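Run Small ribosomal subunit protein uS4c through structure prediction, thanks.
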Amino acid sequence: MSRYRGPRLRVVRRLGELPGLTSKTPKKQNPPGQHGSSPKKLSQYGIRLQEKQKLRFHYGLSECQLIRYVRHARRLKGSTGEVLLQLLEMRLDNVVFRLGLAPTIPSARQLIMHGHIIVNDKKETISSSQVKPKDKISFLEKKNSKAFVAQVLDFESGKEVPSFLNWDKEKKTGTVNTIVDRDSIGIKLNELLIVEFYSRKV
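Sure, done. The structure for Small ribosomal subunit protein uS4c is below.
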């Protein structure tokens, strides 16, 4: 399974800020482990591995899933790195998270799998499904889902919705405006290093 069950702040301390994994901030800033206070200089392979791990943990993917996305991105037109990021950003679980309906991508995935999210007036339970421009996203008016989303919306009220999405506060409906551009990606990383990491593997 792609779900990571270990300590999330430990991953954040090693890889840097990962808003999709957790909204918490670690008290310690040095890397985890016995030798965290004096980190070793990373090799070229280590740098590329670290960028790949950022992508994996942020979007909550297994290694097999990420390899499939890289292969798919290579078959499409455009820069492989940017296309890869677009495919991941347009996943339903990420869009639900970016709209502010869930505090993290794992919690957004749980909302979807439990049948609380509606896409174009139809219940959607596949978190990896790709959304398209003009798709409308809302949540069921059930007591438990309504209460949870309302609580998250209050907590995330100061969070800025990216430009490729739109959130209607009155109707409580999100709309996908367009395909995400590179400037609106929700994580800071170098996608070219990730493509180079997989160049000999796929």
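DSSP finds eight helices and five strands in the chain.
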